[in-house]
Amino acid sequence: MKQLLKEIRHNPLLWSLALIPVLFACHRLKPESHTLLWVLSVFAIVPLAGLLSLATESVAARTGDAAGGLLTATLGNLAELVIALAALRAGQYMLVKATIAGAIVTNTLFVLGVSFLLGGLKHHVQEYNRVNARFQVGLLFLATVALLIPSAVGEADSAAGAAFAQKLSVALAVLLLAAYGMGMWFSLKTHRELFASAASGESSEALLPIGLALGTLAGVTLLVALVSEVFVDSVQQAAVAFGMTPVFVGFIVVSLVGGAAEMGSAFSGARKNRLDLSVGIALGSASQIALFVAPVLVLLSHVLGPAEMDLQFWPGAVVMMLIATMAASLVTSSGRSAWFLGVFVLMVYLIFAMTLYVLPPRVHEIPRLHAL
Amino acid sequence: MKQLLKEIRHNPLLWSLALIPVLFACHRLKPESHTLLWVLSVFAIVPLAGLLSLATESVAARTGDAAGGLLTATLGNLAELVIALAALRAGQYMLVKATIAGAIVTNTLFVLGVSFLLGGLKHHVQEYNRVNARFQVGLLFLATVALLIPSAVGEADSAAGAAFAQKLSVALAVLLLAAYGMGMWFSLKTHRELFASAASGESSEALLPIGLALGTLAGVTLLVALVSEVFVDSVQQAAVAFGMTPVFVGFIVVSLVGGAAEMGSAFSGARKNRLDLSVGIALGSASQIALFVAPVLVLLSHVLGPAEMDLQFWPGAVVMMLIATMAASLVTSSGRSAWFLGVFVLMVYLIFAMTLYVLPPRVHEIPRLHAL
Amino acid sequence: MKQLLKEIRHNPLLWSLALIPVLFACHRLKPESHTLLWVLSVFAIVPLAGLLSLATESVAARTGDAAGGLLTATLGNLAELVIALAALRAGQYMLVKATIAGAIVTNTLFVLGVSFLLGGLKHHVQEYNRVNARFQVGLLFLATVALLIPSAVGEADSAAGAAFAQKLSVALAVLLLAAYGMGMWFSLKTHRELFASAASGESSEALLPIGLALGTLAGVTLLVALVSEVFVDSVQQAAVAFGMTPVFVGFIVVSLVGGAAEMGSAFSGARKNRLDLSVGIALGSASQIALFVAPVLVLLSHVLGPAEMDLQFWPGAVVMMLIATMAASLVTSSGRSAWFLGVFVLMVYLIFAMTLYVLPPRVHEIPRLHAL
Fold this sequence. Notes:
Three copies of one chain form a homotrimer.
Chain A: H1 2-10, H2 19-29, H3 34-63, H4 65-89, H5 93-122, E1 126-127, H6 130-153, H7 159-190, H8 210-242, H9 246-258, H10 260-271, H11 275-303, H12 315-332, E2 336-337, H13 339-358
Antiparallel strand pairs in A: 1-2
Helix pairs in contact in A: 2-3, 3-4, 3-8, 3-10, 4-8, 4-10, 4-11, 5-9, 5-10, 5-11, 5-12, 5-13, 6-7, 6-11, 6-12, 7-11, 8-9, 10-11, 12-13
């Protein structure tokens, strides 16, 4: 505990942790001042991300980078799962779907791209275990196929089509969960040795003891979930004030801020030449959302929700997921990275972001936070 | 001959060969009892598959695994060509196309996936010659492009579009045949050494002499063709009795049973750590159907048929072929296999099968065996 | 100078340089005899291509194959840029777009394919630096995504859609130019050593001195630009006389003849086992057109043109670019080549060419030179 406080005292960024109680107070007292809440929540998430990164490194130093990356991704996605469940019970299926698609694309392209870029600016060429990268890309490909095939083969318009989508979604959700479970068993159990880290990298000097690190991980994840909820509540009105379209907010802004915590860990791993940690967080988080979070939400919507959520996504979102998967496949095939690979992946993300930013609001019939 | 009989006596599975005369007798006497004929023909194909697998191994032990795989695939596809010709002369173009697309997808995903899975459950990591795998994937990609481009570039609806598709199909058929011929020349003649087997594997103990093995191959292939014909005749009514949609039967059931013989060889090769044999059968059979069987049928339809068959496939089928090719490309890029790769490929196949299974019959305007 | 004349005297092909003044005279005196002008211009481009190939080799011998390939590609594309600017100022956006798409596909498939084939017919297996090939394929992928996403996500029909496309095109053009600039900086500066040639190959015996070589490069490029302009002027009427559809002319014929000069260098490099030169010209030229020429034209159209050119391409053209990129990715993943890889890539090109050749003129609403 003393070490944690010492770390906080030495790291000025962490001082802004003080913003968190301010944020919660504001949320209670002035729930309608959305822009203030939005700005406060963005600034509150940054120090939490820093703290989470420190705790993750402390744990990863003991578990290895691949498992450490999975742990970070899982904690980050648990927070997203909690938020999505709240939206689900309110019947906001469109928001949930937009968040899922946005999180997959953001992790695959933005987190991976910035990691490659930041790592590449410090190190000339970086090596990482490409078996893990290809494994995660394969899982993403599987999820994309599961989202693509029903709309490519069937017809969504008719009433028969809707019933078909509903029935198929449950079966596909079970199948994706089974694939994810077997994939974890494969990578953590039967063929663990194939997923060992390629490069050693520097180990952090200031490690937390394992118990404190795990406690910090859990506590900070909870705080991130709470702050994120304020953020999601306020983002729509704030976005209008800043002149952003709802679809841009749903796909890009929510995903970027919602994933800030994992990103901190991924980027600091890349700087320390531990690219396996970064790749594990980026692609591991994307595949976990696609093969675990989304199917769980579909299945839970049959228990909890006012209506059933299906796996039919907006075609534009499916195309973006497919292209993100192909870009990740191109970039990770060699197991080596340099700064331009980061630029390449980020450019694909920028093309998506720019297109969604200028997309005229009337044209698309999709995820608008209006519908919330 | 004695050795063959001895093998049959020691292998209880082969006793069911006795079902074959029963099947033919029933077909003669009670041609309208479809469900009985269907069940009998499925059970008759299983022992034939076992016998074919034995003969193939005996031949492959002398020719090498790549050539042995090609031989098995060719014999299996000859049977399918014979059946398709019968359907063609009856003007059943939709059935022929459904069978072709289904056979390509089933070989690429199901046969490859089960081979990887069965092999991987026995052996921790298996190696195979990835040059051959990539070569076959390239041929499949070429065929998929030939089926995709006409519909992506032209318009199928108008009368001009139909004439365009007709004219183009003949040219594309000739081009695919030329590509296949040059590919065979490349892999069997000019660059044969690149296609040598990666791993030695166990050789079978009980090999048949080469003459007997070749004779068995030919004879069993003929029997498979005859039994398959009964199967195809009875499958539609039987499917209705079992509650399956026609499109599911055309794509999945016919392909699975029609390819049972090759599958036996592919799976037993994988168990014996001779994955080059399995990959050769799975991908070699798929590329042969796409680049040889389908073009030959198009060209023959101009000589034999009441009308011309073209190469315009149902868009959903083209998407499935494209995804199957991409999945095979992802999975074979390393030349190494473990059990989860098999699960991955099978999952893609399951997504296709599940989607076709729940597809409402009225929604699609495609391969229904009704049209036969 | 003497060496250049000696080279010309020894090389009968170069004698046809004498055709160039004849062509210009005819163009002046009989501007309406299109078929004659077309035939003359095709025959005039061939010797220029030969001369350009000689000069390129002389320069590449000093700069290395990768940089030499880039230089050749740049000079070839400068000529195309000049022609496109003329068309742009005349408001012929459709022609410019058809030429751009056709040049990308032709370089990626035809130039690469013929290089692999010609090289492979002389050498059993050829090696080249696959880092450069994958780098160029990545750039092409990026450009394809930039052309694909706006139409996959937005709607082109409505008025709002048109304004959206216009606004987005400028942003995408800036982004592609930035990606190209950073890519050049990466490959020529920070990570130059990764792009070194894989194989040494034969060096030419008859090298020109560097000054003369550079002068020849510049002079011949200018002549090619002038002759190409006559060619483009006459091609439409000549095409009708030869029975070709306008879309076939725009995509295939103009691209083949317009790129003849670079092709000469690429093919002769392949014969001399300097495949890095060929790959650098083929894929480097394609990516340069996609990420430099096309964006520059979009930006210049806002300064020069009567109206703005956008980056919205005919969907069929985008599909062909995507497939060309995937084919190049499949073929260059190993860094080794044999003759069949050339056949494979050429077959994809032939499928495109055949489809465009038989495409009924009324069916498509695209690049017709009519609109010129």
